[in-house]
Every structure is written in C-alpha cells, then in structure tokens.
Amino acid sequence: MNSAMEPTVSWMACRSCHGGWFPRGTLTRLNEAYRSGGVPILIDESSYYARAAARGASSPRNPVVPSPGSEAKTDSARLWFGVVLLGATLLLVGLLAFENIRRTAWTARWIHQPDDGFLWLVFGLVGGIGLFSYGFVLSRRQHLIESIPTSTVRSLAIGLVEVFGTAEAQGPPLSAPFSQTPCVLYSYTVEEHRGAGKGSHWVTIAKGTSEQPFSVRDATGAILVVPHNAELLVSTDRTYRNDWLGSLPHDARAGLKRLGIETDGWLGQKALRCAEAFIRPGEPVYVLGTAQENPAAVDRLENAERLYIGSYPDESFMISDRSERELLGQLRWKVLAMLYGGPAVTVACLVVILAHYVALGG
C-alpha cells in the first residue's frame, strides 16, 4: 500500500506492561486503511465502546482498581484480624476459667499433691491451646497456596505470584557450610548441649540462611529470586553430631571455625549438633513471593530481565524444594492434626487433672 495513504497513529507506551494506549477512533481508522489486508482487525470499535458504556452504567461510578499485591494485603489484614480475634477469645476463655477455678478453690481439695506429673499435664493443657492456634496459621498458609495459580515465567505480572521450576546459580554455586555441597541456597543450625541430668538441654547458638540471588527456570524462561527474608520449607539434608553418638568430619569442623564456633571447651570437646539444608543446581524449586520490577532493568521487555521475585511488606514469601502438591499434602494433615488434636490434648489433660488431683465440692 502507498505509504502516503497510511494513517498517522499516535500512542503512549505503558511503562509497567510495555503495551500501548491508543486514542479513541484509532482502531476504526486502521480498519478503514487496511480493510483489504491479510490480517483484518476484527473489532467494531463503535459497538465496543457502546458495550463498555453499558457496563459502566451498571457498575459503580468510581470503581477501585486493585493495585499489585492488594489481594495479598487483604489476606494479611484478614489474618491479623483472625489472630487478634482468636487471641481475644482465648483470653476471655482463660479469664472465665480462672474465675471459675478461683470460686471453686474454696470448696476444692487436693486428692494428690501436685508433682512432676501434674506439671506435665499443665504443660499439655497449655500446649494443646498453642497447637490449636498454630493450626489456624497453617490453615491460612494452605489457603494462600491453593488460591494462587502457578504461573509461567513468561506470563508473570507484578504482584504475588507462584512459580515452579529448576534452580540455577547466578555465577559460581555456593557451598553448604558443613558438607561443602555445591548449591544455590542453604540454611544451617548449630546447637550445643548444656547442663547435666534432668536439666540438660540443647541450645541454638547459631543459625543462618544464604541470601545470594538465584534463578528459577521453567519451559518459558528464567526469573531471578532474591531470598532475603524468605521462609524456607526445605528438608534437612545433613546432620552432624559431636558427642558420644558421633564426631564431626573435617569439613564440618572447618565450617564451624568459619562461623567462629569452637568445637573444644575447658573439659574437652563440646557436645554439638549441626544441621544444614540446601537446594542444588538443577533441583526442583517452588517459590511463592512478590514479583517486582527491577529498577536496574526497567527498559527490558522480557520478564526474566525486567522482574525479580523477592520479599514485600505484609506479603508471604516461601521457598521450598517440594512441589505445590507435596506442600499441600503435608499442610492438610498438619492442619487437621492441630485443629482437632490440640483441643483433644487440652481436654484430656484437664480431665486427668480433675480426676486424679482435684476434687471439686464437698
């Protein structure tokens, strides 16, 4: 077609999605100019705007357009409201129970004096309430994972997203602190056994997580992940002990030394327990986090270069070496166990206390 006959089209680029905004009437002019072209524009612009006007008349005059991550912020607000409501309910129940106990204490008598068994029952009673409360937290996590569809890297949009692919290192791979295994992400925990007899216990003296970015690749591309402040749901890969059950290998001792932890004390070797979890290059990785625009790459077109996944205030950020199906399978039975098992433990401990330690009335 003669270039002189081609219509002049003015448009404005969108910096967020890199699409274009065209003035009203542009599609009609393009249809008239290229009506005999190989790929006609199958849109009647006048009827399109008529339908849009009809929808606008039947909808609110000032609709609220959700911003990226607004759904996650709403879920977060609902979570905090639920936690506050649950806490207030538990506080009210506790105050009522305390008042009832106080009133009946004058007529109650001890069948057996409190002993270690009584203390364990009290711990069980309180622990059951704690399990019940934590069940709500896991239930919210389960709902969040179920409600967000898995996206391909190519189709990612700014906001809370979920991707699944294989892990790739950005540059040279990291080394796990105690086994020196090449990986893209790791976490570690170091515990020391302190005390003796019944008072002995394990104390966490060091823990940490790597924060070097890595990539997740699927069939459509790769996206950068910045794991700072991420919640890791990764299986423990290595555990080392330095006590009568075993001794630390050379690499583990070297790793502890790099962390500034001595393996020897005044009375010989310290009783230490080291654990590490990691994700190797090429292993499956699941990420639920916030896709954000990389300030250093706003002019790029591909998501792999323009966006990254990282933490965002009041939004969830999880990284796991398990698939979504495996995570949901584990969460379902944990939620059921805590929501039903917690109250069962509380009631059972209370019944045993009343039956074997306290007699109410007369």
Give the arrangement of secondary structure elements.
Layout: E1 12-13, E2 20-21, H1 26-33, H2 45-58, H3 70-105, E3 109-110, H4 116-147, E4 159-169, E5 174-175, E6 182-183, E7 185-194, E8 201-209, E9 214-218, E10 221-225, E11 231-233, E12 238-242, H5 250-258, E13 264-265, E14 268-269, E15 272-279, E16 284-293, H6 303-306, E17 307-310, E18 318-320, H7 324-356, E19 358-359
Parallel strand pairs: 10-17, 11-18
Antiparallel strand pairs: 1-2, 3-19, 4-9, 4-16, 5-6, 7-8, 7-15, 9-10, 12-15, 13-14, 16-17, 16-18
Would you mind describing this structure in some detail?
This protein has 362 residues and is of the alpha+beta class. Among the domains are: 3-58, no CATH class; 70-137 and 338-359, no CATH class. The protein is 38% helix and 25% strand. It is built from 7 helices and 19 strands. The chain has helices at 26-33, 45-58, 70-105, 116-147, 250-258, 303-306, 324-356, and strands at residues 12-13, 20-21, 109-110, 159-169, 174-175, 182-183, 185-194, 201-209, 214-218, 221-225, 231-233, 238-242, 264-265, 268-269, 272-279, 284-293, 307-310, 318-320, 358-359. Strands 4-9-10-17-16 form a 5-stranded mixed beta barrel. The protein has a 4-stranded antiparallel β-sheet with strand order 8-7-15-12, with no helix packed on it. A two-stranded antiparallel sheet has the order 1-2.
